[in-house]
Design goal:
The chain is an alpha+beta fold. The chain has two domains: 6-11 and 60-140, Pleckstrin-homology domain (PH domain)/Phosphotyrosine-binding domain (PTB) (PH-domain like, Roll), CATH 2.30.29; 15-58, no CATH class. Helices cover 33% and strands 31% of the residues. The protein has four helices and eight strands, in the order βαααββββββαβ. The chain has helices at residues 15-34, 39-46, 50-58, 122-131; strands at 6-10, 62-66, 70-75, 78-83, 87-94, 100-106, 111-113, 136-140. The strands form two sheets. Strands 1-2-3-4 form a four-stranded antiparallel β-sheet, covered by helices on one side. A four-stranded mixed β-sheet has the order 7-6-5-8, covered by helices on one side. Strand 5 (87-94) and strand 6 form a beta hairpin. The chain is elongated and about 65 Å long. It starts with 5 loop residues before the first strand and ends with a strand. The model has no long low-confidence stretch (mean pLDDT 91). The chain crosses the membrane at residues 18-42. Keywords: Membrane, Transmembrane, Transmembrane helix. This is PH domain-containing protein.
Length: 144
Amino acid sequence: MTADVFVFVRPGRSRRTLAVLIPVYATLIGLFVLVDAAWWVIGLLALPTLPALWDLWRNPSAGVRLDATRIRWHSGRRSGALALNEIDHMRFDTRWDFSVRVSAVLKGDKRVHLPFESTPPHREFETAFEDRRIPVKRTHFSFF
């Protein structure tokens, strides 16, 4: 078993979010100024962007730490940890939107789902588990 520690941290603030919000707000301001749209219509159109603005402001981090004995994860205010000897296998589910969700299947068939935002790129993560001799099962495009 390896003594290396696998660490992945993702900040909540991203350039992609900023790159999306700038044109959205430019369009909303343009609608207000050029088309004389009602302020309440602009407000309604801006409502779906508020969670992204909140994440830009707060910058919550998400990540995972995998060492020789434990896996720990955090996402905003949520966090969790598992001892590696409790894990029967890790399950990597490829969804219909091509995202990969990760679950720890414990001995006794209980599942613990890792938050999507705290999981690293799946190939690196899968290799980290294989290095620690934890079986990895992959499923593709299932309904369950």
